[in-house]
């Protein structure tokens, strides 16, 4: 979870993620973790800036051969 997603928007200061959306997101992640656990896997969940969290996970795991990600589309103003 990137804390920057829960700050106000650049233009008007409205929250990017409101309470209902956050609750849905948390319930979805919990459900995904439970589903993966039933299949013998797990889900790693971290809070922080992705550029820091991913680096730390790679260091912790030690044997990472590839990392895939997507970049959020930003508004052009």
Automatic annotation (TrEMBL):
Keyword Signal listed: no
Domain of life from the UniProt record: Eukaryota
Occurrences of domain Photolyase/cryptochrome alpha/beta (ranges): 1-77
Keywords carried by this UniProt record: Chromophore
Lineage: Eukaryota, Metazoa, Chordata, Craniata, Vertebrata
UniProt-listed PANTHER family: CRYPTOCHROME (PTHR11455), CRYPTOCHROME DASH (PTHR11455:SF22)
Protein known as: CRYD protein
Species the sequence originates in: Neopipo cinnamomea
GO terms, molecular function: damaged DNA binding; deoxyribodipyrimidine photo-lyase activity; FAD binding
The keyword Transferase is annotated on this UniProt entry: no
GO biological process: photoreactive repair
Alphabetical list of InterPro entries matching this protein: Crypto/Photolyase_N_sf, Cryptochrome/DNA_photolyase_1, DNA_photolyase_N, Rossmann-like_a/b/a_fold
């Amino acid at each position: 979870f990137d804390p920057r997603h829960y700050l106000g928007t650049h233009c008007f200061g409205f929250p990017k993620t409101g309470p209902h959306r956050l609750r849905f997101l948390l319930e979805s992640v919990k459900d995904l973790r439970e589903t993966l656990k039933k299949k013998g896997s797990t889900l790693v969940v971290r809070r922080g800036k992705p550029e820091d969290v991913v680096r730390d996970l790679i260091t912790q795991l030690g044997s990472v051969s590839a990392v895939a990600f997507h970049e959020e589309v930003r508004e052009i103003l």
